[in-house]
Amino acid sequence: MARRIPRVGIGGPVGSGKTRLIEQLVPALTRKGYRCCIISNDVVSKEDAQRMQRILATEAKLMPENMIIGIATGGCPHTAVREDPSINLAVIDEIEHKDPTLDLIIIESGGDNTMTTFSSELADYFIYIVDVAGGDKYPRKRGLGIESCDLLVINKIDLAPHVGADLSVMARDAKAVRPGKPVEFVNCRTGDGVERVADHLAEGLLFDKPVSQKRRKAARRG
Amino acid sequence: MFMIMHSHEFHMMQLADSFFPSGTFGFSGGLESFVKSGRIKDKKGVLLFIRQQLEFQIMPCDCVVLSAVMSSATSKDIDGIVRADSRYYAMKLVREMRTASTRSGKQILQTLAHIKINELAKEFRIMIDQGKSPGTYPACLAMAAYSLQIPAESAVRIMLYTYCSSIVGSAVRLGTVSHIEGQRVLCFLAQDVSSATPKRDLDDLWQLSPLAEILQMRHEQDEFRMFIT
Lengths: 222, 229
Ligand SMILES: Nc1nc2c(ncn2[C@@H]2O[C@H](COP(=O)(O)OP(=O)(O)OP(=O)(O)O)[C@@H](O)[C@H]2O)c(=O)[nH]1
Ligand SMILES: [Mg+2]
Fold this sequence. Notes:
- The structure holds 2 protein chains of 2 kinds.
- By secondary structure, chain A is an alpha/beta fold.
- Chain A contains 10 helices and 7 strands.
- Chain A has helices at residues 18-31, 47-59, 77-83, 86-98, 138-141, 144-148, 160-163, 167-177, 194-204, 211-221; strands at 7-11, 36-42, 68-72, 104-108, 125-131, 151-155, 183-185.
- Chain A has a 7-stranded parallel sheet with strand order 3-2-4-1-5-6-7, sandwiched between helices.
- In chain A, helix 2 (47-59) links the parallel strand 2 (36-42) and strand 3 (68-72).
- In chain A, helix 1 (18-31) runs parallel beside helix 2 (47-59) and helix 1 (18-31) crosses helix 9 (194-204).
- Chain A is globular.
- Chain B has one domain (45-214): Urease accessory protein UreF, CATH 1.10.4190.10.
- Chain B is 68% helix and 0% strand.
- By secondary structure, chain B is mostly helical.
- Classes of the chains: A alpha/beta, B mainly alpha.
- Chain A binds chain B through residues 1, 43-47, 71-76, 79-80, 83-87, 89-91, 93, and chain B through 19, 21-23, 25-28, 100, 102-104, 106-108, 110-111, 129, 170, 173, 223-228.
- The complex binds guanosine-5'-triphosphate and magnesium ion.
- Guanosine-5'-triphosphate is lined by residues 12, 14-20, 48, 111, 155-156, 158-159, 187-189 of chain A.
- Guanosine-5'-triphosphate (GTP) binds next to helix 1 of chain A.
């Protein structure tokens, strides 16, 4: 049996920015020296996988094209990552045989409702991403995804003024709904805040020292 | 008097349940392409599609392989199991169907390894892991049934039933039939499933469904799709 490569699952409602987050996250992780592979579950097309192949493989040359794999979900996005993750697990098995030296597998779920969670057999770390345009009621309205994820990401903060979303309300409610667990505010269009998401992964999934701490130590030494 | 259920009857329900993880909820077996190309529009079309697939692919090919694997398993003949598995893989012309079949097959045995697996099925898993056998769906389902002490005839019916119910499930999700029509289609298929008596000899293996195969191949290239096959 090949080595088990750490896996992060990314879930969230339709259009909340899952794919865009990955497109920003991979360069950030690459800068830290990690090599990743992506599995993109998509509800009705191969569009997201093809877009990432173009942006991350063809243009940025951060990974080979065959390390970005699209899976159709038969219209059942949560089934594919929770009740019956067989096909995702089979693909992971193939990846682990192909390149056991990878540091991380990123799994995007198809766009779904706020109850989405990943099977613990499939993902070791779970990021749930919502966007401010869904309304600043969102952390407060709860849902298993929002409550149970390891990291809650609130995206599209650039849109907050246009949709009347109050970020401080979202921060307060996220804290109340997820005591002691992290939340990050990001703009996946510009990449603002994505470095911090990468830091959480390095620390919480790959068990590396937080980069900020490393930097501080290096600064002290220097 | 209420008869006590044999444990294999329980495992039959477990294996046939769409909740059993096998990844098949994402397969439409070509139905998606038939619906998109306008060839299938309603419950009559869905019923005919399933009947033809049963007659020209599933019964003469999948069922024969499943029966051959079970009979090799009974005589502890691992070479016979590998032969049937490899033959099935070679006969499936559509890449997407082959890949889906082996991905599903391997995961069935993976789940089985955590519930109840016997030595022969373990040995078969190792052969698959080493690339010595492809690990197709009918072969792996046969080994699962064998490990759970399900009789061969029942294993055939499990495969036929799960095929029918998964295609009907796809038709419901594609909007081609309603939930009630779906159950009616399944009832029409009861006779087909219960009267199946597949051969066990690999020399009897055949299949012929060129139109379905062409549409299954088109599905591989389809930009907008909901299903894996
Ligand atoms: N203004 C703004 N737009 C964003 C931001 N992040 C993503 N978008 C846009 O939102 C749209 C949806 O983003 P995706 O990354 O495709 O969302 P997704 O969650 O992967 O969508 P599905 O997989 O289809 O559910 C795209 O048009 C993005 O360009 C952001 O921070 N700000
Ligand atoms: Mg996406």
